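Morning!

As promised:
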Amino acid sequence: MRVVIAEDLHLLREGLVALLRAHGFDVVAAVESGPDLLAAMLRERPDVAVVDVRLPPTFTDEGLQAALEARRRISGLPVLVLSQHVEQLYARELLADGSGGVGYLLKDRVFNAGQFIDAVRRVAEGGTAMDPEVIAKLLARNARSEPIGRLTPREREVLELMAEGRSNAAIGQRLFLSDSAVGKHTANIFAKLGLAPSDDDNRRVLAVLAFLNGKQAP
Amino acid sequence: MVVLGQLVGLVMLVAVALTFLVGFVFVFPPAVRLTRATTGAQRRLAARWSGVTIDEPYRPTPPAPRPQRDGWYRDGRNLYKTPRIPAFNRRLTWMVNDPATWRDLAYLMLNPWAGGLIVAIPVLLVAAGLPTLLSGNVLGLLPAVIAVATAPIVVPWSLRVHGQIALGLLAPTEKARLAQRVSHLARTRIDAVDSQAAELRRIERDLHDGAQARLVAIGMTIGAAEQLVDTDPAAAKALLAKASEASATALRELRQVVRGIHPPVLAERGLGDAVRALVLDTSLTAHVTVDLPVRPDAPVESAAYFAISELLTNAVKHGGATEVWIDISHHGTTLRVTVTDDGRGGADPGRGTGLQGIERRLAAFDGVLALNSPVGGPTTAVLELTRALDSVVPPIPRWKSMTLGVCWGLCWLPLFPQGLVAMVMKLAGTPVKSWFLALYMPEALQWPTIVGMILLGGGMLATAVTLTNQAKRGKVDGCA
């Protein structure tokens, strides 16, 4: 799997390159600035790009802008965005085109190599990987809204993991549930939220995220 | 009003005489207070009649005396048990030394005469005609007719003159204005330094109790794991897991601290998106509109952001609001933020330390907070930061600068040689035609050409002056 990495801190960049190589990824470019990132993404057309939000030369949201621009030019180009802080605003912008293949994680998540690699793979396959912190904030915002309030605690847990972008199997593993039990919970959640059920994992996640985001547009 | 002013003026004169000739100092402050009340009313009147706004010219009031360590109050070389006499002395010095006190007195004494003269003009006109009229001559009515006919012009004019007189004596002198400004700046500087120091202390405490302590713990845990790794690998593994968990917590805490210092999204996106991100983290339904042509300076942005953050917190915590409207706009160089919520209202800036904190923080940038929060809601807070934005005067459009150049560069040509000089030549009747266009014209068209040239030149000059003034005004607005 071909990867482009953008990270301005040398140590972290080297760490990411080593980690991904060790897990069998082919790192085709490791750049350290926004313009370089955009050029590399358009040139290499990687299977996935791992991008830091804050990059030189402006040290603002250069990386995020480059990623969004690349996705505008190459529709659905998978991008996993890493940041020192997570903002729902940015998550919303990444999800706005509704085509999936996006991830948005705190840099801390790199510590847990297994889960991080899992997230990279998921994004590369067109799935979603949202940071638990983003999802927690999203749910907190929606906590008072009517359909969310009707979910059972267990269903809320399933919804949380589902919104992070995990598959049924992964959710079952995390919550010690059988596949069929998870399937039953998801069916209930979709019924309560009034969403059309879907077998496609990716489409399901996007529907849930759109539902949570759409509740209260600023 | 005029008579009252004169009376107060006389009272003040008597008080001055009593104070400085007889030594009855105690009559001075009440007299001054009376004078100031009267001139204050006159200032408001001037604003209503003549449309001239006049600021208060007085120096800032002296601070209340503070007791020494032994509980006595020192005033010069004397010690007093109570603050009464030192406070009085300070007040007296303040009043006597303030030029505005004496200008007020001068105004009260002069105003009736100046005002009287203005009013007297039409009266005198009518009076002048009376003897003639009484002697049976109808011509005596003429001055009265003139007085009535010119009234529409004279009345506003005399009001304006009155306003100018009031402005001359009642307005703060440049010196007084600077003194007020200096004292304001000194106060806000102290506030700014204080709040900055408090902020630094808070950050220091957060780091000391939070991330720093955790890093120490992580170091110790890793050290323990290092010792156990050979003898008890399972325990070492558990310790390492604990260390990794602690590092995640430390990172989370550091993120909180960073957010409190300068939110990353503010640095990355500016005020508008930072506020959007902020409301996304609350349970409020928010409507954010942003109209900013440029990004304000970072400190201003930060002050506005934290002010909005505090207002939102208040709206949720004290007002129980569920919906909020935030409008960020600019007016010239002024940044204006309006925050309206549907909460219970009844917010009082005098009570909440949060609101006072906002006011202090904004004051450092000459910003103000206006709060309107009737009990039962809704609450509307408007904060304004003057000079927050760089001059956003649009550059002079191309056609304007072209016109300006042509008008300034060529207006002399039709005006002088082709207009005025040609006119003189024509009047003098010299046979020399030189290069004066008008003189080559047929006789009938010569005068129209000359007049046309003068009008053209004059018009160009007037256009140039008007455009230049416009551009200048734009610049002044930009930096005032």
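Chain A touches chain B at residues 53-54, 59-61, 84-85, 87-90, 92, 108, 111, 137, 140-141, 143-144, 216, 218 (CB under 8 Å).

Hope this helps with the figure draft.
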